Amino acid sequence: MAAPATAVKTDDAGLGARVKGAAKAAGRKVADAERAAALEVLRQALADGREKAKAELQGQGGGLKAAAVLAAVTDEVIAALYDFASGRVFAGNPTQGERLALMAVGGYGRGFMAPHSDVDLLFLRPYKTTPRTESVVEFMLYALWDLGFKVGHASRTVDECLRLAREDSTIRTTLVDARLLAGEAKLARQLQKRFRNEVVRGTGAEFVEAKLGERDARHAKAGASRYLVEPNVKEGKGALRDLNTLHWIAQYLHPVEAVDGVVRLKAFDKREFATLQRASDFLWTVRCHLHFTAGRAEERLSFDLQPEIARLMGYGDRGDAPAVERFMRRYFTTTKEVGALTRAFCAKLEAEQAISAYTGLSRFWPVRRRQRKQLAERGFIEEGGRLSVESPATFKNDAVNLIRLFRLSDRLGLDLHPDAVTAVHRSLKLINPAVRRDPEAVKAFLDILARGKRTYRTLTLMNESGVLGRFIPEFGRVVGQMQFNMYHAYTVDEHTLRAVEVIADIDAGRLKEDHPLAVQVMPLIADKEALFLAMLLHDTGKGKEEGQEEGGAKAARVACARLGLEPERAELVAWLVRRHLLMSDVAQKRDVRDPQTVEAFARIVKSPERLRMLLVLTVADIRAVGPGVWNGWKGQLMRELYTATEAVFRGGRGLAFDEPAAAARAALAELDAEAGAYGQAMEDDYLAAFATSELAEHAALVALAGRDGGAAASAKAGADRHATEVVVAARDRLGLFADLVGVLAGVGAEVVGARAYTSTNGQALDVFQVQDATGAPFGLERPERLKKLLSALRTAARGEAVRLETRRAPDAGRAAAFSISPVVVMDNEASADSTVVEASGRDRAGLLASLARAISACGYSIQSAHIDSYGARAVDVFYVRGAAGGQLDEAEAKRLKAALTEVLLQPDPSAASARPKLQKARASAVR
Questions:
Q1: Are residues 110 and 252 in the same domain?
Q2: Which of 133, 138, 254, 149 is closest to 187 using CA atoms?
Q3: Which CB contacts under 8 angstroms, 24+ apart, belong to 422-425?
Q4: Domain of 738?
Q5: Model confidence over 791-821: pLDDT tens digits?
Q6: DSSP tag of 429
Q7: Tens digit of each residue's pLDDT (9 = 90 or more) over 659-704
Q8: How many domains is the chain partitioned into structurally?
């Protein structure tokens, strides 16, 4: 059993006397007045202790000291309360069966607490419960709740504790650090001794398996990656609970009286122990600040809290690195260190043969732990089913072996032995400029990157061990770097490795259902090494002064030259890095059915090989941003752009409208006179954009609108379409498009694409692609919502008022943490007959409708709209024609830019309402 983890004292033994004195002064008999007086003394002691903990955080004490202070004052308050309850409230001479030992268990038992941590207590009885013990326990619990504690408690005998501990590993864990707070010391010692002899002895392997299993389940629940940009400080990978797991395992196998006893047991060397202490202190500092700032037991380091925690911890802006990103990079570096400590710790346990009977997790302790097999590649062995090295000299004798190790692991499908990982970690300085240029090292690395069997896993091992960043310094520069926005779910390095994994899966044909075109073109790519290198290096320009694209291209050239690539191949990699956002920007922000858009894109890409590589690169980049970012609609846009551009490279004209338009008019004329007249009145680009069957449906809808009050609407919802297509026919008027978009926003339909057409006789046809909040086609699962939408659209199209509640934008509170400047860009080069207007700013409910109304208010018409969002930032692109029907002139463009900027600057009421909640929590924390 561990003694208290700290000897911190915040008061002397006088607290209990002050409690009794206050109670006595309140009245001679025990009553509500005495209880209230006692609790007031304890409440003040808690407040004083919390202020002392805050002082430790703000001074030189740090998180561990602050957590120890909070635990110590809690100890003193609970002990004083127990003394008051047993010595005054229920005064008397208790019998042997009425005596209690009050013990701290679980995380509280370790002697460290966050400001709003739970208090886990064990009321230990010698025998079955008695009326007196029940009364004492009940009084204690109600008093603790009144003091603001969240209490986890149990009242058990020693035998009950031991029986439950044998059955449940969680209960067993709570007893590992059980320590006496007040009451019968003899009873507490009896539990500690019997627990060690009757439960712990001979069950080390079982306990380790349970703890590591719990850890894996916890990681899966909290997010498998330690590089999630809104990490859980307590439960996340590499966070405090992982350090607790190391502690519990160490205590279970080798109980010590203090933390530094781990060093004496040789579980860590002095350098590793210093890293352990530094990581613990940092994480505890973050957690304590998080609790104080939020005013509650908040464990998630969310975007809205990150800037404040960074400020409290003394981080400031430095060059192009904002304070919050510097702070979060330190956080991710720390969790990476915790992962390395975990592996080192397992290696030490294995070396000590501490768990020779353990067979549960082959990654740590395989069945054949001592079997060694010499491998053909010199310096490497297979030990217990895992890859290891003959000795640390394997790397010292030839530093290229630091790369060969991972290639061999990938080829043989062997996990790394903890000894090998520890040896790697201690040999990183051997990776010098000469090693980075060594042809054997380069070949081994490219084999892993472009031809690996388990590319992502192997590269992740290289990254977490530090090898990848040392071998490719350009990548090392972005390890742990976060992007302070709501769009990216991972740090830059984790996003990059996941993108490489997507390309590897495409290459292996594993993503044929999701990305059929990418899987189809991948075998046609001649230089896959260049593609994989471009993916690995595509974000290395982030945070650079010259910008992401140019900075990344520059870094790519340097890396490729060092790796020995020919100049032509190096330039190809640099081009892909510089242009890695091009295809997604064109597909999602421009009209891919506009021939001028396609031809301009083709002029930049220049060759089918680059087009194929750019497609695969773009798919992987978007898919690796985070869960739910990629969807079928984006895939459809990519396929349309790819197909049209490929036609240009085959010698075609991209999308020529003359012949398709003529054929469409002829087909409509064959249907009936009314459809033929409709075809003659519509413009060529519209007729070329839809199949004949769709044109016939539109003609029928227009005819219906003429008979049904001047407006009609229809919809097609299908999972294969990736979005529900909504078509509205009505007489054209200024503001029609804006009114329709307002209805869509009001019912919660997310517009992902829109086109507006007008016939020569004034008939408007607006076509929208809409999804629900989950990214599914709107109304697919709930047809009643689609029916309600169509009714509202018909009403709005006739110019009648529609009352719909505008819905709050998701994540408005978190979005408020970001400073987003509005940007409006006008482009008369991207389209022959329209001005392309890109409006970008803070996303909010109804933004698209507000922008469309502003365009209409200026007297301009919208030909198409292309909508996308990047976390808290929305990017809405409109193809706009002026009052005379063509592109906007300079004065018109200036007027529209001012109007749209004014819309973008309007505050989001739902986001603004989230701010006071945080401010109120901070104020209460200070009080």
A1: no
A2: 133
A3: 422/343, 422/344, 422/347, 423/389, 423/392, 423/394, 423/395, 424/395, 424/465, 424/466, 424/467, 425/340, 425/344, 425/465, 425/466
A4: 682-807
A5: 999 999 998 888 765 544 445 555 555 567 8
A6: G
A7: 677 888 999 999 888 999 999 998 887 887 788 899 999 999 999 9
A8: 4
